[in-house]
Automatic annotation (TrEMBL):
Identification of the protein by name: site-specific DNA-methyltransferase (adenine-specific)
Pfam families documented for this protein: MethyltransfD12
Domain of life the protein comes from: Bacteria
Organism: Psychrobacter raelei
Keywords: Methyltransferase, S-adenosyl-L-methionine, Transferase
InterPro entries the record matches: Ade_MeTrfase_dom_2, MeTrfase_D12, SAM-dependent_MTases_sf
Amino acid sequence: MKLIQSEYDKLEDKEAKQPFYYDKRDSFNKRDVSSVEHAGLFIFLNRAGFNGLYRVNKNNGFNVPIGSYKKPNFVFEDVILKASRLLSGVDICNISFEGALKLANEDNPEGLPTFFYFDPPYKPLNDSSSFTSYAKDSFNDDDQVKLKLVCDLLDEQGHQWLLSNSDTTNFDVTNTFFDDLYEGYKIERVKASRNINSKGTKRGQINELLIRNY
Ligand SMILES: C[S@@+](CC[C@H](N)C(=O)[O-])C[C@H]1O[C@@H](n2cnc3c(N)ncnc32)[C@H](O)[C@@H]1O
């Protein structure tokens, strides 16, 4: 990361930085580097790319353009080492949310109560904020309902869960999609800063939902 930092800092302006950024993006998508370097490229792209956005095309290729940061920082050893310590002994499973049921049951022979935090793709607030797809498969209202059914089962089995999502009443008070769907559970509205919005003037505070069964 230190090498990338010093090379990037030497490039004077956005025009000079562009070929460097897109070259690293190509390399990230081709996976023509070691896994450690690939992780480093992810940090670089996340910090130098537009608004820290993560988005891929239909072929699963990262396609976020370069951002306009004056001097992004790619080196934060302390944070990486702390994350590494916290994650040691942790299993990261790349599975669909339905897999939570298996984790709670088959993979939990002692039947210990388990805590689940669900952070699914947010339901869009209006037509123009239709960004729900971080990956090539989108997440629609049917998926939101399926996730709720998983939450019901976990609840019946004595597990605890917390779920975050957008508050569809922000711009349309009559759109009570989640209030209706999760009726009977605890629904809290919290203020959240929205950083990812193509229109800078539309950044600011908005309500989001925290829904839980405990
Ligand atoms: C709001 S983001 C979560 C961000 C994450 N909590 C973080 O802090 O980086 C929603 C995530 O849900 C994932 N996702 C989409 N469909 C899914 C599914 N069927 N099961 C599990 N995860 C899914 C997306 O790939 C995306 O990473």
